[in-house]
Amino acid sequence: MGRKRRRVIRRVRRTLPKFFRCPRCGSDSVRVIRKEEGESISYTVVCGACGLRMELSGEAVQRKEPIDVYNMFVDAFYRGDIK
């Protein structure tokens, strides 16, 4: 008689999405593009469907992840800074 074999349960690691939802048109077509120019980092957030666009640079976005930049983009839209 042999022992009962144990089943290995693997944890699935979730990753952040590449495309986000647009606050204006509602489609999942917002991309966050990171540009590195020497020491400075800038981000461009653009919707592929409606063309809503915002560029962020400077000290505020130096150590941010794309999801943080997207949240800054959505906050600026709802404040009325982006039309």
Write the topology of this structure:
Layout: E1 19-20, E2 30-37, E3 40-47, E4 53-57, H1 66-79
Antiparallel strand pairs: 1-2, 2-3, 3-4
Report on this structure.
- The protein has 83 residues and is an alpha+beta fold.
- The chain has a domain at 26-79: N-terminal domain of TfIIb (Single Sheet), CATH 2.20.25.
- The chain contains one helix and four strands.
- Helices cover 17% and strands 28% of the residues.
- The termini are far apart.
- It has a four-stranded antiparallel beta sheet, covered by helices on one side.
Task: Indicate the multimeric state.
Answer: single chain
What CATH architecture of the domain at 26-79 would you give?
Single Sheet
Report the uncertain regions: none
Distance between the termini: 72 Å
Determine the fraction of residues in helical runs and give it as a percent range.
10-25%
CATH topology of the domain at 26-79: N-terminal domain of TfIIb
Strand coverage percent: 25-35%
Gyration radius, rounded: 19 Å
In this structure, how is the largest beta sheet organized? 4 strands, antiparallel
* Apparent shape: elongated
Structural class estimated from helices and strands:
alpha+beta
The strand order across the widest sheet is: 1-2-3-4
Per DSSP, the total helix count is 1
The total beta strand count reads: 4
H and E string: EEEEH
Mean pLDDT score, rounded?
A: 91
CATH class of the domain at 26-79: Mainly Beta
